[in-house]
Structures are given as structure tokens and as C-alpha cells.
Design brief:
- With 222 residues, this protein is α+β, with helices and mostly antiparallel strands.
- It is built from seven helices and ten strands.
- It is elongated and about 65 Å long.
- The N and C termini lie far apart (57 Å).
- The model has no long low-confidence stretch (mean pLDDT 92).
């Protein structure tokens, strides 16, 4: 009964899309941070991994590091986390750098007390009670959660999809449009459907958009 109650509490406390990102203070490989003051006016991609010195996590963290320039170009800060000590993090960063030449040049939260993991629903008891799942939180400059991805311990993430989703969110915000299946930079975007008969008639007469039907129309983005 106690485990069931604990599980229910964790589920209730899990942040959702549209929520304000919970604030916290934590020690990272780049020093102490307070999340509400971290990466001012920037997007944040915060991601958890199960443990340092593990194979899948090493490939994932290396993937973030190798493609960090692409996140920088999208004005986005990376922020990692696992339920390990700061000493384990530092040792792992150095070990990977020495063996592969890849340097994890972004802060990694030391969450040994599981405070942040629980706050963000990264600790899911049916998967593991001591290791964070592979979660990704896309957080906008207003510190609002815009997208959440969860992966189990044994399946690595897709870095191209993380970057595609990030760019889709930013582009949608900029142009006030929606993104169709498999959208990528350079593709047409979906314009909002008409909300009145007047808007519907204007849409039918508008040659500047590609009309699949009256409620599904696409346009090029400048």
C-alpha cells in the first residue's frame, strides 16, 4: 500500500506540458545553479540519464556534446542530470574526454538526493526506484514546459528528433503556425483554420496558401 501511495504521489506531482517549470537549486559540473535564474531569455533542454559510467548514457551524452553547436544556434542551453554525485560526474566527464575526445561542455546536475528527479517525474518506480528514466524537457524562455519526452532505461534517444522538435516549437511560436507530420526546417507549415464563415470565404479565395481542403492549408515560411 505504501509503494502504491508513493507512486500515486509521484504521478500527481509530475509536471505537464504548459506548466511552469518547477524551480530548484542544485550543484552541477559547472557550479551551483538556481533554475529560475539559469539561462535567462533562452530555451533550455533539460535531460536525465540513469547513471554515469554506463554505455547507453555515454552515447547519449556524447550526442548532446557533439551537437551542442546546433543547440547554441537555436539559443538553447543544455542541462543534464543523473542520480550521481558531483565527483562521479567529474570523473565520467574526464574519462569520456580521455577515451573519445568528446567533452561534456554543459552543466550536469548532481542529484544524489533525488530532489530534482522527483520534482520533474524523472524517477518512475515501475521502471526503477534508484535511476532516472531518460526524460527530456523542452522549456521556453518564460520557463514554461513546452514538450516532454520519456524513454525507458534501455532505449537511447534520437538527437535529430530532439533538435527537430525544438526548432518546430520555436518556429511555431515565431510565425503562429502549426507543424505537420515530419516537419523540418524549410517545409511548409500549417496555418490556423478559419473560425468564422467570413474567414472561411477569405481562405477559399486566398491563393497565397496551399489548400488541401478548407481546414487544412499550408504556407511557405520566410
Amino acid at each position: 500500500m505504501e509503494n502504491s501511495d508513493t507512486h500515486q504521489e509521484l504521478v500527481k506531482s509530475m509536471p505537464r506540458i504548459g506548466d511552469k517549470a518547477p524551480d530548484f537549486e542544485a550543484l552541477t559540473t559547472k557550479g551551483q545553479i538556481k533554475f529560475s535564474e539559469f539561462a535567462k531569455d533562452k530555451w533550455v533542454v533539460m535531460f536525465s540519464h540513469p547513471a554515469d559510467f554506463t554505455p547507453v548514457c555515454t552515447t547519449e551524452m556524447s550526442g548532446f556534446a557533439i551537437r551542442k553547436d546546433e543547440f547554441d544556434a537555436l539559443d538553447t542551453e543544455l542541462l543534464g542530470l543523473s542520480i550521481d554525485s558531483i565527483h562521479a560526474h567529474l570523473g565520467w566527464v574526464q574519462n569520456v574526454k580521455e577515451n573519445t575526445g568528446v567533452y561534456f561542455d554543459f552543466p550536469i546536475i548532481a542529484d544524489l538526493d533525488m530532489k530534482v528527479s522527483k520534482l520533474y517525474g524523472m524517477l518512475q518506480p515501475n521502471e526503477s526506484e534508484t535511476a532516472a528514466v531518460r526524460a527530456v524537457f523542452f522549456i521556453d524562455p518564460e520557463k514554461k514546459i513546452r514538450l516532454i519526452m520519456y524513454y525507458p532505461l534501455n532505449v537511447g534517444r534520437n538527437m535529430s528528433e530532439i533538435l527537430r522538435a525544438l526548432e518546430a516549437l520555436q518556429t511555431s511560436d515565431k510565425y503562429k503556425v502549426a507543424m505537420p507530420l515530419d516537419w523540418k526546417k524549410g517545409d511548409k507549415a500549417i496555418v490556423p483554420p478559419p473560425k468564422s464563415l467570413d474567414e472561411l470565404n477569405k481562405r477559399l479565395e486566398d491563393d497565397s496558401v496551399e489548400k488541401v481542403t478548407w481546414y487544412l492549408a499550408k504556407k511557405e515560411l520566410s
